[in-house]
């Protein structure tokens, strides 16, 4: 085993007594209570973070409010774009540092942290930077009767909503945090981020880089802590929009509270129990490497990744045999070792949750392959395929958010669609087939925000992303995010 060397800058950053990032600088915490950040591969404490009080959250929101009114909303769009691009440049310059911070706190393979998380963060920031100069309203011609020759014209203004609360999960904290930063800053909004209590460091570091990029103090603030800190943040009267990514129960609670808070705008990117449909004509040798990579990337802790494989009856045995053989080749190891193909789960509560599902599967003899936690140090579990006992089986219904996937046989297209849609979730799905005509007929029947053909889990800033049913509310990326971060003001003029 050979692990990458931890950079001195990373060691120094982890050794700091972190506070909150408010008004362009790190502010020491008001209270002494700390949260330990644990490396999930070694179970060692790598750093600690503070827990923001309501007072500290209010200071961060006030700073974002002042920056919105006195700096950012009035910054010319071109300059906003330049600064976001400069931030992307700095992320590129500090790529290894940010990748190591992510790996040390999430257990994400170092190559995934480098080539997906950090690389895509740069791509997304640059994409959003490009939008700054392209957000506009429209002109209209009203049909109001003219009695004395008067005329009318109308136009719409797109105005930034104001201070955004960005609440971020632990699986891709840097990238998801930057989806929110990019959307907010390009439209002229300012933001207070609340990263996950498990993976906070990369966004604290990013906030410092934003100051180096020339983004004014107060435009990006970061308060750290658990759910309570998130509640203080979303309940602040100066917050005009909540952008939340996380689990369905938290998302529903946030949505309900946002409506009570005088209809605070809210967008929710939540969980899934995503389906991959492997049709009768699929060539398994061709599709399996791509399908398994898309499924087990980051140990399955990806909201968009599949957790249910629907395999045509004629291919079921071949599929389970070949997928089992392929998964047995996954080399499990330290996420800091570039040769590892599979790392630990990101944190202990999540490990316990996934273990609970594996225990049920083992008790009920539902394991096709894998199914074990690894004894010893670290939150490692095997990549697992399961049989399910019908569509009411909890293993068919509940999101594990781990490397645990059901394999279910189907015979007809009708049965396939009925089973895929038998779920409260509707985030993503995929069809694996060379029969494009059949795929095109199935796509409209699938209840999901994204459907891929012969691919899964790939996100691109040009393509909208979001869930239907309990998987979410609103869309990110493309031009779809603009509605969520701006208010449309109608202006009508008589002349
Ligand atoms: P979570 O809901 O437990 O926490 C998400 C964030 O919300 C954290 O920062 C947490 O501290 C905060 N939080 C918790 N309770 C809160 C409350 N009452 N008020 C305000 N903030 C609160 O989710 P998680 O375990 O961090 O992430 C895993 C979940 O996220 C999975 O369900 C996964 O599918 C989902 N996810 C969805 C997407 C997407 O784009 N749809 C992306 C990544 C993850």
UniProtKB/TrEMBL annotation:
Domain of life according to the entry: Bacteria
UniProt keyword annotation of tRNA processing present: no
UniProt similarity note: Belongs to the aldehyde dehydrogenase family.
Family annotation (PANTHER family): ALDEHYDE DEHYDROGENASE-RELATED (PTHR11699)
Claim: Oxidoreductase is one of the keywords in the record: yes
Domain Aldehyde dehydrogenase positions: 31-491
Pfam families noted in UniProt: Aldedh
InterPro entries from the UniProt entry: Ald_DH/histidinol_DH, Ald_DH_C, Ald_DH_CS_CYS, Ald_DH_CS_GLU, Ald_DH_N, Aldehyde_DH_dom
Catalytic residue list: 269
Protein name: Aldehyde dehydrogenase family protein
MF terms (GO), sorted A to Z: oxidoreductase activity, acting on the aldehyde or oxo group of donors, NAD or NADP as acceptor
Keywords carried by this UniProt record: Oxidoreductase
């Amino acid at each position: 085993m050979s692990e990458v060397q931890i950079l001195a800058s990373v060691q120094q950053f982890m050794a700091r007594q972190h506070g909150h990032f408010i008004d362009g600088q790190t502010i020491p915490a008001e209270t002494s209570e700390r949260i330990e950040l644990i490396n999930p591969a070694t179970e060692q404490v790598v750093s600690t973070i503070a827990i923001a009080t309501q007072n500290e959250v209010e200071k961060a929101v006030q700073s974002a409010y002042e920056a919105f009114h006195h700096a950012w909303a009035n910054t010319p769009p071109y300059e906003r774009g330049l600064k976001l691009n400069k931030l992307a440049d700095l992320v590129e310059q500090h790529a290894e540092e940010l990748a190591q911070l992510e790996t040390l706190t999430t257990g994400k393979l170092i190559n995934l942290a480098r080539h997906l998380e950090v690389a895509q963060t740069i791509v997304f920031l640059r994409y959003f930077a490009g939008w700054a100069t392209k957000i506009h309203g429209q002109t209209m011609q009203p049909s109001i009767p003219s009695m004395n020759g008067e005329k009318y014209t109308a136009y719409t203004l797109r105005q930034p909503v104001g201070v955004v609360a960005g609440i971020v999960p632990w699986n891709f904290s840097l990238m998801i945090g930057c989806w929110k930063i990019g959307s907010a800053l390009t439209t002229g909004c300012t933001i207070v981020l609340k990263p996950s209590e498990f993976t906070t460091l990369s966004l604290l570091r990013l906030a410092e880089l934003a100051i180096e990029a020339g983004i004014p103090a107060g435009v990006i603030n970061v308060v750290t802590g658990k759910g309570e800190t998130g509640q203080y943040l979303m309940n602040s009267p100066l917050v005009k929009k909540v952008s939340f990514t996380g689990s369905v129960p938290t998302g529903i609670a946030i949505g309900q509270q946002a409506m009570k808070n005088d209809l605070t705008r809210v967008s929710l990117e939540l969980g899934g129990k995503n389906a991959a449909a492997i049709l009768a004509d699929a060539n398994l040798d061709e599709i399996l490497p791509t399908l398994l990579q898309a499924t087990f990337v980051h140990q399955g802790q990806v909201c968009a990744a599949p957790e249910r494989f629907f395999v045509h009856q004629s291919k079921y045995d071949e599929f389970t045999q070949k997928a089992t053989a392929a998964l047995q080749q996954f080399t499990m190891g330290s996420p800091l070792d570039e040769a590892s193909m599979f790392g630990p789960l990101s944190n202990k509560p999540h490990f316990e949750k996934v273990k609970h599902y594996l225990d049920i599967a083992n008790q009920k003899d539902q394991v096709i392959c894998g199914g074990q936690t690894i004894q010893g140090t670290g939150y490692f579990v095997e990549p697992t395929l399961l049989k399910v006992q019908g569509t009411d089986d909890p293993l068919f219904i509940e999101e594990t958010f781990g490397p645990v996937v059901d394999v279910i046989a189907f015979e007809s297209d009708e049965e396939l669609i009925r089973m895929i849609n038998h779920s409260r979730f509707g985030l993503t799905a995929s069809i694996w087939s060379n029969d494009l005509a059949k795929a095109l007929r199935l796509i409209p029947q699938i209840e999901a925000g994204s459907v891929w053909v012969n691919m899964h889990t790939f996100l691109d800033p040009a393509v909208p992303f979001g869930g239907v049913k309990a998987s979410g509310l609103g869309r990110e990326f493309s031009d779809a995010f603009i509605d969520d971060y701006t208010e449309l003001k109608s202006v009508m003029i008589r002349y």
